[in-house]
Write a sequence for this structure.
């Protein structure tokens, strides 16, 4: 099975699960504030829809994507705030219709890309499987914001394998967006999947290690929880520092959340 074939069904299923949650709440609850400052549930879903459209554009019209990307020069958070605010004023049913159409468009576009090809994205060109993994990561992060707002407990599945792998691969990115030089040595990351399976990344002999539940790792690299509130263990000074910096999504460095604080976080 090609990597893209593996991630796209999981991306679709994760989107359907979040869709089921938000479509089941009363329309007025769409105005509930989430942990992302200034963002309601409507903002969150509007942002996901716009990001899916942007993903499809990157695949289907690279030149138009490049023009749009150049027009977004500056603070990506400000751009995302403006796009989400435009969507948030729409009736919930209209936001849902747009999000469903955008999700389907993004998945169809990604499924058309040959496995060995690369698609230009916000920071760098990515394989279709990696780009699909970023979409799944967005569902995990923004889905957690929505669940926090609604007081709903996240029940993760092994679909998050793609997010965990992305988190391991973006270690150096988290340093560089902060103007720091990444550690020269690879880390060993050992994560327990929701099913109980062990997921391993990096050389087995690496002295710098991070271990713990895969779901906690995904909340870490989406900056939805502070590492002090997660059951993750770091061995080595560099690995411990990475717990403070880990961020797998594009944009400026996010301050994340303070220990014990579930009401503030990054985009």
């Amino acid at each position: 099975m090609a990597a893209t074939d593996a991630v796209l069904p999981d991306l679709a299923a994760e989107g359907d699960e979040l869709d089921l949650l938000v479509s089941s709440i009363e329309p007025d609850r769409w105005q509930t504030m989430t942990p992302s400052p200034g963002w309601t549930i409507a903002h969150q879903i509007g942002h996901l829809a716009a990001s899916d459209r942007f993903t499809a554009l990157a695949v289907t019209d690279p030149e138009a994507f490049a023009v749009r990307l150049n027009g977004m020069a500056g603070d990506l958070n400000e751009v995302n705030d403006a796009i989400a605010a435009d969507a948030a004023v729409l009736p919930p049913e209209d936001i849902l219709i747009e999000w469903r159409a955008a999700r389907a468009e993004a998945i169809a576009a990604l499924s058309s890309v040959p496995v060995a090809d690369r698609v230009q994205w916000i920071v760098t060109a990515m394989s279709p499987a990696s780009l699909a993994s970023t979409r799944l990561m967005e569902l995990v992060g923004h889905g957690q914001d929505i669940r926090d707002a609604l007081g709903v407990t996240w029940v993760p599945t092994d679909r998050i394998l793609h997010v965990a792998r992305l988190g391991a691969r973006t270690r150096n990115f988290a340093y560089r967006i902060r103007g720091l030089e990444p550690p020269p040595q690879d880390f060993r990351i050992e994560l327990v999947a929701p099913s109980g399976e062990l997921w391993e990344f990096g050389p087995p002999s690496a002295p710098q290690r991070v271990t713990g539940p895969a779901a906690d790792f995904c909340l870490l690299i989406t900056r939805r929880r502070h590492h002090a509130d997660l059951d993750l263990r770091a061995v080595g000074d560099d690995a411990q520092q990475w717990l403070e910096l880990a961020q797998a999504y594009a944009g400026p460095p996010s301050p994340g959340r303070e220990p014990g604080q579930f009401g503030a976080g990054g985009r």
